[in-house]
Amino acid sequence: MDLGTAQGMLQLEVVHCRGFDDAQAVALAVREQRTVLLQLDLLEPVEAQRVVDFVAGAINALDAQSERLGATTFLFAPADVLLSRS
Description:
The protein is built from two helices and four strands, in the order E-H-E-H-E-E. By secondary structure, the chain is an alpha+beta fold. The protein has one domain (12-77): SepF-like protein (Translation Initiation Factor IF3, 2-Layer Sandwich), CATH 3.30.110.150. Strands 1-2-4-3 form a four-stranded mixed β-sheet, covered by helices on one side. Helix 1 runs parallel beside helix 2 (45-61). The radius of gyration is 13 Å and the shape is globular. It starts with 11 loop residues before the first strand and ends in a 9-residue tail after the last strand.
């Protein structure tokens, strides 16, 4: 099966953020019903915080959800995705 063209497949994007410009792309992906794993380990702490603050604000406005997975790793998902931790 070609996963790139499969209908109805959920999509997870992994973003290795290289700058603040990637923040808008993450918010747009969630708005388009895609789940995003955001990795901020390439950024300085101040820039990483700006990115997280921007995306978290957008996620809140979209009634979506977020989960911090590690010091520099976040998961952002549309409201219809069930997030659970064990």
